[in-house]
Target: Oligopeptide ABC transporter ATP-binding protein
Amino acid sequence: MALLEVNDLKVHYPIRGGILGRVQSYVKAVDGISFRIDEGETLGLVGESGSGKSTTGKAVMGLAEITAGEILFDGKDITRYIGKNHSSYRKSVQMIFQDSYSSLNPKKRILDIIAEPLRNFEKQTAGKEKKRIEELLEIVGMSSETMFKYPYEFSGGQRQRIGIARALALRPRLIIADEPVSALDLSVQAQVLNFMKDIQKQFNLAFLFISHDLGVVKHMCKNLIIMNKGRIVEKGVKERIFENPQHIYTKRLLAAIPDINPDRREELQYFREQVAEEYESKYHIYYDKDQRVYDLKKTGDDHFVALP
Ligand SMILES: Nc1ncnc2c1ncn2[C@@H]1O[C@H](COP(=O)(O)OP(=O)(O)OP(=O)(O)O)[C@@H](O)[C@H]1O
Ligand SMILES: [Mg+2]
Model:
């Protein structure tokens, strides 16, 4: 049984206009996507800016209103409760964000930042709370004095660890990580990614790992979905998609990954040219007359592609 199952999810944002502020049309930020995440596993979610990645994460977190579809957690349909204070689910699913400057309140001490979810969900004595925070800081590799400082006193990588400590406070089973390393230097990115993998093993955590960068996701996930225009263009086991991409959109994302191996430079250049040519001449094959992404078809074992 999947830990999280999302079926035909839609999130349409109304666009209002005119003096009466009537709804004039909708932004179909997410338009009918389905996926599942198993316990302890990582699903990568990749797409360019505006493809609907964050909206997907927010819908699962209960932070964006669901227009249609259903969300199951542990086999139970929780779609109707998701935005409400359904506390066992709210504890089980946590989110970490790209921008640790704005997601950690600059006016609060680290102690109060990490304690916030604990105070919302678990009433504890100040002593117990402090002990738990020490524990959490230790898990993310930071000293206990950290708790008396403020976010500005830390580097981006350290702040990301603090965000992770806060996400872990309620012992979640799923973490939605929305571009968790995109704001960090390359060397720090690798540290944070490795660290995320360590805590995943330690706590049997599942991740929905959101990124615009296929290169980052490659080292993190088992399964992958590629999003474009609020829809899924390709889905499956990571290796299938990297080795045998089928949709032109996926190919373009792959062609954009820089290769540091000089021996492969020519090969990559050839792939890039081919993809650019195919994009020019065959784009229309991959989208219907309204420029919409087709429904997914099974093209192989654990491999689905949006084709007519
Ligand atoms: N609250 C909102 N109201 C109206 N439209 C929205 C809202 N939030 C997002 N959108 C629109 O929905 C679409 C998808 O946005 P979303 O933030 O999910 O994209 P994304 O894939 O996370 O992009 P990025 O990589 O830039 O973070 C965009 O066209 C965006 O403008
Ligand atoms: Mg986003």
